[in-house]
Amino acid sequence: MTPKITVLMAAYNAENFIEKSIKSIVDQTFTDFELLIINDGSSDKTVEIAKKFDDSRIRIIENDKNRGLVYTRNKGLKEALGEYIAILDSDDVAVKNRLELQYNFLLQYPEVVLCGGHAIAVDHDGKQIPSNLFTMPHGQEEVKMQMLFLNTFVNSTVMFRALIVKELGGYRDYAPAEDYELFTRIAEKYPIDNLDTVLVEYRIHHNNTSKLQSDLGDRNVRRIKSNQLTYLNIVSDNAGLADILFSISVWDFNSFKFSDYLYLFRTLKMANIRLCKYPREAFEKKLFQFWANIIITKGAKMNALILLMNRNLFKWSFMSGSQFRKALKLSIKNFGRYKN
Question: Are 47 and 99 members of one domain?
Answer without folding.
Answer: yes
